[in-house]
Automatic annotation (TrEMBL):
<dbReference type="Pfam" id="PF13041">
    <property type="entry name" value="PPR_2"/>
</dbReference>
<dbReference type="InterPro" id="IPR002885">
    <property type="entry name" value="PPR_rpt"/>
</dbReference>
<feature type="repeat" description="PPR">
    <location>
        <begin position="229"/>
        <end position="263"/>
    </location>
</feature>
<keyword id="KW-0677">Repeat</keyword>
<protein>
    <recommendedName>
        <fullName>Pentacotripeptide-repeat region of PRORP domain-containing protein</fullName>
    </recommendedName>
</protein>
<feature type="repeat" description="PPR">
    <location>
        <begin position="194"/>
        <end position="228"/>
    </location>
</feature>
<dbReference type="Pfam" id="PF01535">
    <property type="entry name" value="PPR"/>
</dbReference>
<dbReference type="InterPro" id="IPR011990">
    <property type="entry name" value="TPR-like_helical_dom_sf"/>
</dbReference>
């Protein structure tokens, strides 16, 4: 039975005593399957090979360069010992079709026959557990293998979804240099960068306060003919306003309106308004920024209608007025909101 097979794998892999008569519920079976999968691809000398052979997987020895697929359709990945699981049961159960352990080495091979769904599950698990180098190598090996197979080459959308998993994880952890390395690798192989990829880069550099890089990416995106969506435009505006680059933020809004790239949303205007309302400088400069914040409010009403401004809009304005000690104006703003 399935439960007996899982218990057998656990006993063999972890030297557990016999567990006859033990009933496993669904909350135990699935984690146990992950653990068994982890033992199968951990890559310890002799141990991984024996466990993989029990499921019908044949160990392979392969070169360790992830960019040149070795003979037999395998791209080798030299992964650290922390890579110890396949984070989906389908991939764990069909491990001989996804990854193949190497004899006597701390690593595994990604097979060209692995589906995008299985690779996506593997990338999600590696990324969420912080094993970003392994996720990066796995992605590159898979893309290299798939691009070399004319009959089974992935579409740009399918490849883009896999790239997005790794890029998001790298950007969330502020590892933008590694993002740049992955993108350079893709561009060198003629792999297109999609809308979502540009958005991820803009968000990542925006979080790190690198507004110059955000500007470069936004300009490159437009020159490449990739149309930014609302999320990308809002991410660029947010990055510029957080760095005090209001002119750059206004240029993005202008593109949205005059070139009809995408219609600004309440969030678009609220982000721009917040940039003016919280801008630092001399008293005169802050007063001018406050006037421009109210100008954004007027544009917001004109574009989105009377219902456009929301609670975030008025809270931002009231907080700015209070900071400027204009209590009466703050009270009028609250009354207008009601």
């Amino acid at each position: 039975s399935f439960q007996a097979a899982i218990l057998s794998r656990l006993r063999e892999s972890l030297d557990l005593p016999a567990c006859e008569g033990l009933h496993l519920g669904p909350m135990v079976v699935l984690p146990a399957a992950f653990l068994v999968a982890g033992v199968l691809i951990r890559g310890r000398p002799g141990h991984s090979a024996a466990a993989a052979a029990s499921l019908g997987a044949q160990p392979h020895s392969a070169p360790t360069c992830p960019l040149q697929p070795p003979a037999g359709g395998l791209a080798a990945i030299r992964a650290p010992r922390e890579v110890r699981f396949v984070p989906c049961f389908r991939a764990a159960y069909e491990i001989d079709g996804v990854v193949v352990p190497r004899t006597g080495e701390a690593g595994y091979n990604v097979t060209g026959s692995a589906s995008g769904r299985d690779i996506a599950a593997l990338l999600h698990g590696l990324s969420k557990s912080g094993q970003l180098e392994a996720a990066d190598r796995t992605l590159r090996a898979h893309l290299e293998l798939r691009s070399g197979r004319a009959a089974g080459a992935q579409t740009a959308d399918e490849a883009g979804r896999l790239v997005q998993i790794v890029l998001n994880s790298l950007a969330d952890r502020g590892r933008m240099q590694q993002c740049a390395g992955l993108l350079a690798w893709m561009q060198a192989r003629g792999m297109p960068l999609g809308q979502v990829t540009y958005c991820t880069l803009i968000k990542g550099h925006g979080r790190s306060g690198d507004w110059r890089r955000v500007k470069q990416i936004y300009v490159a995106m437009r020159r490449a003919g990739v149309q930014p969506d609302l999320a990308t435009c809002n991410a660029a505006i947010d990055a510029f306003t957080r760095s005090g680059r209001m002119t750059n933020a206004e240029l993005v809004v202008r593109d949205m309106v005059t070139e009809r790239v995408v219609s600004p949303s309440a969030r678009t205007y609220n982000t721009l308004l917040r940039g003016y309302a919280t801008r630092r400088g001399t008293p005169r400069q802050r007063a001018r920024s406050l006037r421009r914040a109210f100008g954004v409010l007027r544009r917001m009403r004109s574009r989105l209608g009377p219902a456009g401004p929301d609670a975030v809009t008025y809270n931002t304005l009231v907080a700015a007025l209070v900071r400027h000690r204009r209590v009466a104006a703050a009270q009028r703003a609250l009354a207008h909101r009601k």
